[in-house]
Each structure stands twice: as C-alpha cells, then as structure tokens.
Amino acid sequence: xxxxxxxxxxxxxxxxxxxxxxxxxxxxxxxxxxxxxxxxxxxxxxxxxxxxxxxxxxxxxxxxxxxxxxxxxxxxxxxxxxxxxxxxxxxxxxxxxxxxxxxxxxxxxxxxxxxxxxxxxxxxxxxxxxxxxxxxxxxxxxxxxxxxxxxxxxxxxxxxxxxxxxxxxxxxxxxxxxxxxxxxxxxxxxxxxxxxxxxxxxxxxxxxxxxxxxxxxxxxxxxxxxxxxxxxxxxxxxxxxxxxxxxxxxxxxxxxxxxxxxxxxxxxxxxxxxxxxxxxxxxxxxxxxxxxxxxxxxxxxxxxxxxxxxxxxxxxxxxxxxxxxxxxxxxxxxxxxxxxxxxxxxxxxxxxxxxxxxxxxxxxxxxxxxxxxxxxxxxxxxxxxxxxxxxxxxxxxxxxxxxxxxxxxxxxxxxxxxxxxxxxxxxxxxxxxxxxxxxxxxxxxxxxxxxxxxxxxxxxxxxxxxxxxxxxxxxxxxxxxxxxxxxxxxxxxxxxxxxxxxxxxxxxxxxxxxxxxxxxxxxxxxxxxxxxxxxxxxxxxxxxxxxxxxxxxxxxxxxxxxxxxxxxxxxxxxxxxxxxxxxxxxxxxxxxxxxxxxxxxxxxxxxxxxxxxxxxxxxxxxxxxxxxxxxxxxxxxxxxxxxxxxxxxxxxxx
Length: 654
Known about the structure:
eight-stranded mixed beta barrel; five-stranded antiparallel sheet; 22 helices; alpha/beta
C-alpha cells in the first residue's frame, strides 16, 4: 500500500495515453503532473517507495527462508513417513525418537508406540560383543557407519533377514546433533539366493554330500579355540575329535568297465549308507555332530565332533565296513564293493586340520597296505617309524656322496674243517642323527627310490678292493672270496655286467673270488635282461648265489636253468634244528634241509647255511653235508682289520 488517499496516477515516465498499470498492495501508480507540484509529488513517492523497499528488506527475505525451511521439513517428514524402507531416528542413548510406518509394520507395532524404545532390543543388536561395540561407536560419534545382518521375526510369524544400517544425521540442529538414522532393509530374497548358491558351491552334485571345501571349513571351525572360556563348559583340553577317512577299493575298475553313470550311482548309494551309519552312531552315542562328506573321487570322510573315545570311532568304522559289504542293486546290476578306512581319534586341543588329515591319510595308506577291506587305527609309534623312514629317504643319496657308509664282513666257514673260506660284505650307515643303521633299515628305501644303484656300485667296488688287499697282504694263504648282495633293481636300472667287469679290472680281483647274492624272489622267474645279465656274469667266472632260499617261490625247476652256483638256506630252517639239550623244536626242518642239500649237490651246487648259532646246529649241518656256514657261532660282522687276523689262523669254533 502506498499510504496516501489520492487516486491512481500515471507513473513518472509513462507515455501519455498509455494504459495505467494495475494497482497492487505493493505498487500504486501516480498520475503525471507538471511543475513543482509534480516534482514534489514524485519525490514524495520516491521516498515512500524507498521506505517500502526498506520494510521489504527487513521482513521479506527472512520470512521467506523460514517458510522455505519449514516447507522442506514438512516434505522430509512426509517422505520419511511414506517411505517403504523401514526407518527410525535414534538419539545418543539408543532410544527411538520417531519411526515411520514401515518400521512399525516390520516390528509389529504402531510407529508412535516405538518412540522411547531401545533400538538394540527391537533389532537384536546386543547378541554379540562385536556388533554391540560397533553400534555404540556410531551413537557416540566415533564411527561414521555401522551395518550388520540380523534374523528377525516378522509379525506374521515368518523369519526374515534384515540388513540394518546406522549412520549419523548431518545438518541437524544442535539439539539433534547426536541423533542417528536407522534403516532396516529386508534382504531375505538376496540371502536365500546366496544360501542356495553357497549350498551348490559347498555340496557335491553327485552325492549331495558336503564337499571338500565345506568339510575343511567345518573341521577348522571345530578345532578353532574359542575366543573366551565359559566356565560352565567342560575344559577345552578334554574335548576330543574323531575322523574316519575311507577310500573305495576297486572303484576305478567299476568306473572303467561299467561307465561313469553307473559309477556315479554307486557313489550316491555309498553316500546314503554312510549317512545312515553316521546317524545310527549319533543315536547310540550322545555328543557332537557327525558330518559325512565326499572329499573327491571315491574318498569319503566322517567327522565326529566331541567324540567319546577311540572305541566309538572303531565301532563306527566296523559298521561302515559291514554296510558297504552288502551288495548294491543299481539299475538291474548287482555290484559289490569294499573300503579301506583310516581311523584317527585324539584330543582336539593342539590338533590342526592339516595334522589331522595327514594322520588320517597315513592311516588309510596303512589299511590299504595291510590288505584292504579293513580299518586301521592311527598308531603314533608306527607313524614315527614312517617319519624316520621318510627322513632316511630324503638323505640317502647325499649320504653316499658324503661317505657315510661303511662295510663290515661276516665270515663264511667251511663246515668240514672250520676254515675261513670267504666273507659276506654287509653295509652300515653311520647316520649323523640315528647312529649306525643296519641294512634292513635303509636298503628297501634305496631300492624304492633308485639310489640302490649308486649305493650298490660303491659297495661292490669297496668290497672287491678289500678282498684284493687281503690277498696281497697274505700271499701264502688261499685267497678269500667276497660275497656281495645285489638288488634286482641294479640288474634292471644299470649295466651290472659292465660295472662288475670294470671294478674287477680296476681292483685286479679274479672273477672267481666274487660271489653275487640275489634273493630267491628276484632270481626265480627271471627272464629277458636279468637272465641274460646273470648268464653273462656266470660266463665271466663270477659265482651267483640265491639268498634266503626256501622262503620264496622255492621253484626247484628253475635251478637247472639258471646260472646259479650256491644256495644259501634261510636261517629259519636252521633255527628249527635240535637244541643243545637234544630237543627238536621242529623235526620237519631237518628233513627239509637234508632234502634240499642232497638235491643241490646232485645239481652241482654248493650249500651255505645261515644263522648258525650253536655247536649242535653246526654238527647236524655238517652231518647233512652242508658246505659252508655263517652265523654268530663263528663271528658277527666285523671290521676288515679283524678279518685279517682270522686269515691263516686255526679253525673257527664249529
């Protein structure tokens, strides 16, 4: 309003005859006048206009901003209440200040009723220390965001998974500066999809059992030390764990002959029986859970948490074997299968998943080596022997290069006169950790890894060199023959004939003074390259002896076709001879030995008896006609210096 009673006037500067502008509350037109009156009027109007502008500046903008903020707050609150996402405002004490209808619907209470309630109680935020601590950090302003997932109960009775997010509210007034915004999103569908994908990822598609990944995840969780100790629970060191680790015997043959489809059906049927066995065991023994898993191929595992002891695990293994021995009827085919099972049971404290599985794998190997279709319990002593064996295997080859091996020699004595005729070279390993080791501790390992070729060549060269030295040191005495053990792998993996010829040439030892001993199982049935090698050695003049005769095939028909010169009777026959008091522990042994000696002589072979320990045994062997004897009655294996003292001496006791 202009604040004057005058009628409407044209504004200064308005063209004559132009229509007058409309009159409003904040604008009044002033008609054109002439002379001073118009000028004064104009000035007065200007002053009034300035006054109006000043008033407008004092009241207009401030009132507009306040109105705008109030309007925005109304809009925000309307959006907050209408939002489908459950939300709430929480103060610094954790109490809900206001909640929208969606949150009320989710929690089954009107939104107004939720005001004043503790948010952590409604949303289960205090069930674990980690979640509670993070939530409190946001309330106290020391953390910018908190998010967790919780399983909640919907008012309609169903369970749902909710993703809860708590963030500080920015731009609030000083009174609201400590408030946070709480949102609750229903992620049940996403969670269900994730669980389905995880189930597919963690389960075997053929048997529907947990797979290797889930098994090790469960095993690690079972063995994990709890972060705190609950005094109401039994001590952790008393908790035990058990594992049956099994492998189907002959499954590959079924897969190869009947096809993978039949093999998969068999695996599924085996899984069902294993599950039944585990459930039956759980019903008989109170305690932890049982987990049946397929680890891959035809390998399965049954994990027993909080086991009652070894007896429970062995009973479970027996039930599994019995269940699998029953025939399987698969699509009109009747199949039979067996399994080998490694059983491990121990205290959980101090046990790692890797250590437990290594023990189970070792025990499963023992079960297969012992004959299959059986269970074997983990034996710490046997495992220690295996570990020692592994240690020897890894250091055997370098030991040959380092010169850790030595030879000792055991006399071979003529039974008729007691005179020293020859010696057998026996290798010893001066191990830096385990001391002096006899051949039975490492020769088999050397045969398995192929180092027997290198070791055997060293033994042969050292023994021939020593025999030649004795011969040179005692030129007036009949030379001793040297007997050296040869593994069948030396015949296959090396040119044994060339090695022998080279060593004999180097040492200048006559071929007739070298005797090579091979076990009966290695010689019997020899054909091809081994037979040609033995024949070449015999043609060279080297004597071939069959060691431990009578314990293997004992195929006498081969004796006439092989280039054999000597039979060495196994000591088990000699031990059955009469004792000093005249008793006969095994009279049949004497009869067998007598028959073998007579047969050997008719074939032109000489006979050596091993393990001669008493004068009575020596006397009986002499009467039977045995040619030479070897054993503790005459001497143990000794250093070469002691053998030198026996050359040319009086007959040895016998």
